Amino acid sequence: MTAAIRSLGRAGMFSLSVLRASKPTTDFFTELVREIYKIGGRSLPIIAVGGAFVGLSLTLLGYRALETYGASNQVSVLIGLGLYRELAPVLTALLFVGRAGSSIAAELGLMRATDQITALGLMAIDPVAKAVAPRFWAAVICVPLLTAFFCSLALSASWFQAVQILGIDNGMFWQTMQDAVDFRGDFLIAFVKSAVFGGTAALVASYVGFHAEPTIEGTSIATTRAVVNASLLVLMFNFVMSAFLFR
Amino acid sequence: MTSARGPRLEFAVGAFLLLALASLLVLAVASTNGQFGFSRGGTYELTARFTNLGQLRPNAPVKIGGVTIGRVTRVDLDPVRFDSVVTLAVEKRFDEIPVDTSAAILTGGLLGESYIGLSVGGDLEVLQPGEEIAFTSPAVDLMQMVGKYMFGGGGEGADAASPAAPEAGTASPDASPSDEGVLP
User: Fold this and answer.
1) Where in the sequence is the domain holding A156, given as residue range(s)?
2) In what order do the strands lie in the sheet with B132-133?
3) What ipTM is given for this predicted complex?
4) What whole-number distance in Å separates Cα of residue A126 and Cα of residue B28?
5) How many domains is chain A partitioned into structurally?
6) Residues in chain A with pLDDT < 70?
7) A202: which of A3, A103, A194, B99 is 20 to 30 A away, CA to CA?
């Protein structure tokens, strides 16, 4: 019990040290650009393909369910609200955890195993500022943008499925969605959510990697724990934020 | 290494950010209701009392002739008269609503959402901010209406039909003697 509280406290102190170590130096921005490319730009394909297939299957599901009530041309209400409120932020964050969180944990774990973190400290370079803070901010910036990609691909795929294949009217599709999706209540909150999820995923992954056992096995354990813990935290935070932010 | 990969990397990151922001913008315009919230506060309040709200909720639209001119901001119950008091926020540019305007709680379609429809009157006097709309009609309970029709108003038709049933069951094709009995 005390051990659990202590590890929670260590994670909280680590998060604070990341925030304190984020200073806008030239080196920070160089690292930030590289990390945005590595964890944001390189995650694009998986996000795009994932979004497209989620859009397709969600349209089929909504069509099937609404057909019962003769309201199948309202399927875009379900797609718009479902995507912005829950699916896009959560699924993007989960894909991001699998794609980028694991690599953050593995990188930092290997840095720990090969004593690079200690070496940075010996050279009076703050290892948190050099290795963790750019990754954290890159995730906070990238995950909302990746969510935007997810949404646009999902909406395009769902438009294709609904209008071109299932035969829902094009104007009806967009108009019912625009009537249902509120800009501030649904759309903006989706991106607030995904920024929180990105920060959470990066913090968990870098915390686990940073404090990994300095062995090969320790690195693999850290990678696993990063994915498991970050995914669970994302799902829990999603419920909490949904409960408080949506009316 | 940084100098060799720098420009290409920066270009890639820039392209990624630009593309992402562009898709955000397109999504915001194409798939939301466009309530960007820049010109908020251009509304004034009216109240209305109803005996029954039905499914009316805060944020329901207020319409004149099908065009949305405002929103329901608050729904409350008068603790003395037990009327439901609805507060409406109407856009400032519609500030010449006559005092004899009546408000009704309507439903869009059979299963649609409730909204407040205003029928504009002809009085020269205009409703001031904070004033109450005097003429209101409550929400129509569809299930009650269906029930009344089935068990109340429909009774006469049912009585007329019931004597015919045994007749049809016992007799051969020339059952109704009034007009077809002469044929065979």
Assistant:
1) 26-245
2) B132-133, B43-50, B84-91, B67-77, B61-64, B114-119, B102-107, B135-137
3) 0.76
4) 40
5) 1
6) none
7) A3
